[in-house]
Design brief:
single chain, 90 residues, 3 helices, 2 strands, elongated
């Protein structure tokens, strides 16, 4: 690395800053997608808590978003039971 200035000189290898590459475009896209997904889940969780008659109550998706009402817990339990049977665990 060449440093220019009033006292320009070549830096010794021990003085050179370590290069740390930033995320690539595809990694940035994945990060943005994950952030949007998290925001959607948080928004749905707020809607579910505010409205006990929301159409998503009683689904596994609502449970995964954080709703722990009886209908959502039952949906999760049913799904896990079916999955265990399918995998030969029951």
């Amino acid at each position: 690395m060449i440093v220019y200035g009033p006292n320009f000189r070549y830096l010794k290898p021990s003085e050179q800053p370590e290069y740390v590459p930033g995320p690539s475009e595809s990694e940035l896209a994945e990060i943005r997608y994950a952030e949007r997904r998290k925001e959607r889940r948080e928004q749905l969780k707020a809607e579910l808590l505010a409205d006990p008659n929301h159409e998503k109550h009683g689904t596994g998706y609502a449970y995964n978003c954080g709703c722990r009402c009886e209908k959502c817990k039952q949906a999760r339990s049913d799904y896990m039971r079916v999955r265990a049977k399918r995998n030969g665990l029951l």
